[in-house]
Specification:
There is one protein chain. The protein is globular. It contains 5 helices and 7 strands; from the N terminus they run ααββαββββαβα. It is α+β, with helices and mostly antiparallel strands. It has one domain.
């Protein structure tokens, strides 16, 4: 009887260990699940409303996480870049795909700079595929493919304008 109990405990222990290896998740990782902003969400930089995906301006919302897992929302990705720069902090950053409104990492996005009206007038839209970005450029006069580096360069001018930020 004792051997059966020991065998069962060892078996359970191995099962729990295997589950931990298959699904390792730190407390910070658990907090960094991408979610939709609420109707009470405000930009962490300028305190403007952060639009949800069903709003026309929701295509430009951004979401980021600090190293400790604190979630931040931004009404425009430009605000996110300024926030990061002013605090000298590296954030884990996400923008919305313009077409699907799904979150995507800034490192995987294709950038388009255009004459579009965005919440803080940075004028960038983001796409999950290069083809979608090129199609947008073709159908919108003045739009051009861009990059994260170009958005970051724009922050210097934005910092001068952003007196209340």
């Amino acid at each position: 009887m004792m051997k059966k109990i020991v065998a069962m405990l060892v078996s359970m222990s191995l099962a729990f260990t295997a589950m931990a290896v298959v699904h390792p998740q730190t407390e910070v990782e658990a907090k960094t699940k991408l979610v939709e902003p609420t109707n009470k969400s405000h930009c962490a930089l300028c305190n403007m409303v952060v639009y949800r995906k069903n709003h026309a301006m929701g295509a430009y919302s951004a979401q980021a996480f600090t190293k400790k897992g604190k979630r931040l929302f931004f009404d425009d990705a430009g605000c996110m870049i300024i926030y990061e720069s002013k605090r000298k902090e590296t954030l884990k950053k996400y923008v919305r795909d313009y077409s699907t409104k799904k979150w995507l990492s800034v490192n995987k996005a294709y950038y388009v700079k255009g004459n579009m009206t965005t919440p803080m007038d940075y004028g960038y839209a983001y796409f999950s595929t290069k083809k979608a970005a090129k199609n947008y450029v073709k159908s919108h006069k003045g739009a051009k493919l861009s990059s994260y580096a170009a958005l970051k360069k724009q922050r210097k001018n934005a910092l001068r304008k952003c007196s209340g930020c």
